[in-house]
5-bromo-4-chloroindolyl phosphate hydrolysis protein (Roseinatronobacter bogoriensis subsp. barguzinensis), 288 residues
Amino acid sequence: MSQRFSGRYSPNAANQPNRAAIARPHPVGARVNILFVLPFAFAIRAFFQDPTGLALNLAAFGCLLLCAWLTREGVLAQAAYDARKVARKPAIPRKIFGAVLMGAGLGLAALTGGVVPAVILGALGAVLHLGAFGPDPLRDKGMEGIDTFQTDRAAHAIEEAENNLNEMTSAIKRSGDRALARRVESFAANIRPLFRVIENDPRRLNSARRYLGIYLVGARDATVKFADIYARNQDSAARVEYEALLDDLESRFALRRDALLADDRTALDIEIEVLRERLEREGLRTGG
């Protein structure tokens, strides 16, 4: 099926996804992916060894494969941590454990050549792993003076909202229309700034709970029903109504975010004004 070319300056450019917001490099790159390939060299090598070598190489294979998995999860956790101004440290230091397993795996594979070479190779592997991927975040970020209960509530609400967005993205693919799929991706990218505002200040959750809950659940349900209808009969009227719904929700989320940021600015202005008044009073007292 042919597809209409569209871009930034096309007549329908307003409905095009925000590429800058969507196109983000995935944190898991070639460095992580290659960790899943290397262990198989030891698995193949194991079957050309004596029983001791077989056991050691298979143990090395298991350690290195687990190292690759932990490293990937640690890199993803690091990316999520870095993307937020307020974040908790990962509950499990996955990259550090991955470095330990890297050293253990290489040490086991080299153990047939002696203990000293195995220790040296294992230590070198662990150090190089930490040098390549770095350690995990070991402290919370931006949580000074923030109630952990509020932070947990906000994190749970945002997780539920992200799940609803993922369900919308999966459901719209059933419609078979790539333009609609891109429109939903754009919708998700354009409303996530509200999530970031709540993450940065969990006290804002009460002001935005309706948006993260009722509105997104309604959008998810509407997307599921629309995708089923549109996949059957390509109803153009239903498509227009659905896209209008997304536009309306986007504007409401943007207004809510702007209102929360305006409240922050108002609070800052009040604090500055109070401080100025105090300084003026102190100046009058000093002059007197």
In short: Residues 1-23 have pLDDT under 50 and may be disordered. The two ends are 84 Å apart (CA to CA). The first helix runs from residue 19 to 22.
